[in-house]
Amino acid sequence: MNKEEKRAAARLRWERFKKGKFYGILYDKGLLYFFLSFLIPFCIFWYALGSYGVHPFGDRQILVVDLWHQYYPFFRVVREKLVNGGSFLYSWENGLGTNFLSLISYYAASPLNWLSVFFDDDHVRDALTFILSAKIGFAGAFFSTFLRYTYKRRDFSICMFSVMYALCSYTLGYYWNVMWFDTVALFPLVMLGIVALCREGKWKLYTLALMLSLVANYYIGYFTCIFSVFMFAAASIIECRGIKDWFRKLFLMVRSSVIGVGLGGFMLLPAYFGLKLTYSVNNTMPHEISFYEDWRKIFAHLLSYDAPTKVDGLPNFACGMLAVLLFGVFLFSFGIKIREKIASLLMLALIAVSCNMNILNFIWHGFHFTNQIPYRFAFIFSFVLAAAGFRAFDIILSRGIKIYQLVLMVIAPVTVFVLNYYAAGKKFEFEGALKSSIIITGAFWLIFIAAKIFPFKTQKMRNALMTLALSAAVFSEFIANAQMGVKTVDTTGYSDYPTCYEEIEELLDCTRKTDKTLFYRTEVSQTYTLNDSALYGYYGLSQFSSAANVSVTTMCKRLGLYASEAGNRYYYRTSTPVVNSLLGIKYLIKKDGMLNSEEWVMENIQTSDGSNLYENRYPLGLGYMVDENILRMEDNGGANPFEYQNELIRRASGVEDKLFVPQPVALVEYDGLEITKNGYGNYTFQNDSDQPTGSVTYTYDCIDGGYLYGYANGTGGTCDSLEIKCGDVPIDSGKLIESYPIVFPMGNGQAGESSTVRLTSNEKHKSGNFKIMVYALNKDTFEKAYCALADEQLQIRSFKDTDIIGSVDAKKDGIMFLSIPHEKGWSVYIDGEKAETFKLLQAMTGVRVSAGRHNIELKYTPEGFPLGVAISFASLVLFVLCVIFERRRRIRRQALAAEAAAAQAAAQQEENPYRQGAAIYDQLGVPRPEDHIGRVEDSEVVLYDGIKSAEKEADNAQSESDDSLQRH
């Protein structure tokens, strides 16, 4: 076989392949470009991670900031429940118990998290990294789908622009907020659904994509809902045909939105009720308009190769210099409708103004001002800009490159470069991000010029080579951008997270094997993350999340624990035996050493490679009887946690003796500070020395039968560090009061010994106030109060996350104190009868129990969950009915059209005898005469026209029916 024959055979095989189903799926359906649009950003991101040694390419990891403290610990709990079983409605592994459905609706509801079950326990962090990369890949894939359908183009150019959206500066600056990126990825799919709805009346994609967006992350899904309104306005102006068609599409849009939101009701409604318990519910809208940033700096930040905003800074708008280069072409080129240009320009302006104006920013963020990480909806700007750039490129590919377009390409990049000149204080320094952006912009422009002047054989070849050259430049640009993003966000050590994990796991296994109690709480004496209980996997107190119950936060602050309402956190570090007992903390783990305090109440029962496990000698269970007087407990504002605990124990146990007694200062030493006393424990200081900091040391005498506990507060951050000693034995030290006041133990000292507290001023403050109070806990009074509470505890026989069964033997009528954060989702049944629950200490759950022995059952269903499930089910039924109705209507329309066409064809035949004769020849199987051929062809044309006419009449009838339905 010669070369020509081989080529002919190859062409023949290619033609056969093009006619096959696989080719249709791969090219016509866009599967190839979908796959490439997923794979390219996925690989670029992994290359950037690998270049900075992220595991498995090195000993680094992506866990930083809140991904370290929150997102990964919650992700670990989700995987644990997937692998080992457990309810997704409630979790005991953080916050004394928390509405887990509400928590994961923001942090960990991603369907992709299910992939974590395919990773073993030693590679859970790798699972998180892989899942994040997959989300970025899907952002590119779904954006390619949006471009392919909206602009009807099927070539490699959609892959190039998909990378620009998937790896925009928003992604590269905020990727550590892993839970946002499901909805960022789904955003183009929702917008595609809106375009399809306005163009063809296809509403199912929009409905399902909106539901997935809201379920995956309701917070970013809320942004999607807001922008969908503007997207529909733009798409309906561009796509709809007439006012009747517009009203029909509006009806479909509203109906689909209601169904989409309703389908997510099982997740959204519990999340809503959960948010009502948080601090964010207290936000108020500003009354005056103000702007945050200099407009020049905002748009100057469109440069490539620039460090994206990670925590605080300018909006992350950048999506590559090619999109900027083509923006002028989009605005001024012929072939793009003016209304399309205006719509895109208005949408870009909307996002830009919303980022910079306080009121609009407040509304976009769910009527809430964010704590850092501003402008969380900025990715929409990149979406619109990248889509506009692709639209301009589509015109170039379709109509060829025009000279005026080459001139228009210069406008937007030069504007950005000039804005950088002014933003830098009218200084032009050809270096860094500006230099690289100018070079890559010049490269893009030269590629367009070369494509214009070079004599290609065909327009198709010109487009292919131009796209290939531009893609190479874009991919190199985004490889550098991705590396800059990873460098900006930073990494942490892989092998040292979490610290002492094997030792703590061994100690926790010890408690599981030896303690047959069905429920108890454990804590670690020093925090590693702010969600250690979720990270290590034990029932604990600590919680840092946007879903934190603000009432529990306030209670913890009253008790002297680390807590901040505005910071959405409360967590354990050290505390008094009173707090440990009341909240059911039975075990305490000290990493890297001994506890050096509270030997009388904490027994060391196990050691593992330097870490120690202590058992509380005075534990209380999940529930126990307290006196009715606890209802008259007053909230003293947290000014003195010792007096608060005194009052609490007196009212709960009936023991009138004081538990904590204030201690005088035995000796005070100053180092560079002048101190003024303003009352017990309240001091003012002045630093007149040349040293940036000063310190003061207070000494207290220990007493027999009592143990010293201190409370320190560096008001306004004036003091930040403490050093606590009992004799020469160090108890604790560090920046313990840098952010929050805290109660701490002061050792095991008795009469003849002393304990000291040394406070160091903050170098930023030369004067200020601080508090230091020291109280002695009376051991005999504590034991007396403990016995009064411990003899009427809830005896648990069966324990599940949402269903607890036990019994209590109450000596008299009273109140059962349940150390469970109060929520309407908890129901208490006493001897099968539902009892009324109420708040104790403004945060915990209480229920009245009469004297005698009673069976107790606690059941939990998140508030709003039953109603949410009902709404989801009703929405699903409505969705199915709409699909069935639409299908039947389509079949009926086709049948009516066919009948009408047949009737019209029959009428035409009766009028034309030549056609009747042709039909007779056909029935007899006899060849028709030559002079009848043209008439038969005319009959086919008439039949086709009849079918189209009947379909049009059916469409008009249906449109009138829909209009009538809307009016009613």
Q: What is the highest CATH level, the class of the domain at 660-784? A: Mainly Beta
Determine the number of helices (DSSP H or I, runs of at least 4 residues).
Answer: 30
Proportion of residues in helical segments: 40-55%
Structural class of the helices, strands and pairings?
A: alpha+beta
Judging from the principal axes of the Cα atoms, what is the shape?
Answer: globular
Q: What fraction strand?
A: 15-25%
Q: What gap, in angstroms, lies between the N and C termini? A: 75 Å
Rg, alpha carbons:
35 Å
Overall pLDDT confidence: 89
CATH topology of the domain at 660-784: Jelly Rolls
Q: Mind telling me which CATH architecture of the domain at 660-784 this is?
A: Sandwich
Mind summarizing the main beta sheet? 6 strands, antiparallel
Question: Which residues sit in consecutive blocks of at least 5 with pLDDT less than 50?
Answer: 930-944, 957-968
Please provide the count of β strands: 31
